[in-house]
Amino acid sequence: SEIWITSLFTYWAKYVKDAVQYYKNIFPQSKIILGGIYASLFSKEEVKEYTGCDEVYQGVISEAEKYPPAYDLIKNSNPR
Fold first, then answer.
1. What is the rounded CA–CA span in Å between residue 51 and residue 62?
2. How far apart are CA 41 and CA 49, in angstroms?
3. Does the model's pTM come out above 0.85?
4. Nearest to 2 by CA among 20, 15, 18
5. What residues does each domain of the chain span?
6. Which helix (H) or strand (E) holds 51?
C-alpha cells in the first residue's frame, strides 16, 4: 500500500518530516510518497534524506486537482 503526503510550504518541512515518521511507524510496510510545493522545490535526494520518505513526486497531479479536500474525515474539522 501507499501513503501520499503533501508538503505545502518549505517552512512546514519539520512537520512534514514528523508526518512521514508517524506513518512509517504505524504502517511500516507502506511506501511513503511525498509531494507538494516543498517536495517540488528541492531535489528528490534532499527531500528523501531530510524526511525519510520512500519516494518524491514533483509537480502537479492534474487528476487529483478536481477533488476538494475531504475535511469531513477529520474529527472536529471546520474549514469554513
1. 24
2. 14
3. no
4. 20
5. 2-73
6. helix 44-51
Query: Are the CB atoms for 35 and 19 separated by under 8 Å?
Result: no
The amino acid occupying position 9 is: F
Calpha distance 51→14 (Å, rounded) = 8
Cell of 80: 469554513
pLDDT for the residue 8: 81
User: Locate cell 471546520: which residue?
Assistant: 78
pLDDT in tens, 16-57: 999 999 999 999 999 999 999 999 999 999 999 999 999 999
For residue 17 the three cell numbers come to 518530516
* Residue reference for cell 514533483: 58
Assign 3-state DSSP to the chain and report helix, strand, coil percentages, each to 5: 50, 15, 40
